[in-house]
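Subject: Predicted fold for JMJD8 protein, 233 residues

User T.R. writes:
Posting the sequence so we have a shared reference for the thread.
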Amino acid sequence: LAGAVPEEPRCTVERADASLTYSLFLQRFAFSRPVILGGVTDNSAFRALCTREKLLAAFGPFPVRLSTANTYSYRKVDVPFQEYVEHLLKPQDPARLGSDTLYFFGDNNFTEWGPLFQHYVPPPFRIPGTSPAYSFGIAGSGSGVPFHWHGPGFSEVIFGRKRWFLYPPDKTPHFHPNETTLAWLQHTYPTLPPAQRPLECTLRPGEVLYFPDRWWHATLNLDTSVFISTFLG
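User M.O. replies:
I've generated the structure tokens; pasting them so everyone works from the same file.
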């Protein structure tokens, strides 16, 4: 399925590199628009701990909490991490509804996963008055979270490629809350006039996306992906 999930032909999210200063981040992006940051951190040590073999050895018997991939009414299911990796981590079925699709993202037990997160180097920028919280995820190709919004944050891809779609707070996207991102991309996206299309881009390992407060966003994993977000609450 991964080969059937297209990358967007161009990236419409602005990019910045390690030369971006904190003051310029606050001025240009923190409260106004998303940005893709490249080369701002080195998470090679964290990435080495996130291979399938290393994660199964460290966390295999521990439970993880899975969420359904819909927008408003999340159902939670607890399974051993090894069961998720070996039996549930697979490509998205295009015919399944979001409420029937289980997704590992967030809801981590920080007592058990804390040692892993200690090796993660978060982006160097913060929003005044907020504190960071991590959310770690692993998902199959074609999976993703449909449109939703919350506070500001960063998201980094560790393995795989992750496609993002973003709308500003005053531009509510057209979507069905129980439709997966893959179904939206196949059915709704092609009907959108250019002026109604979202900002979009594909993140690759080591790249970090920043999204401001209340920006609508949906995600689509083009490959089996490992990713971590830093929410600023």
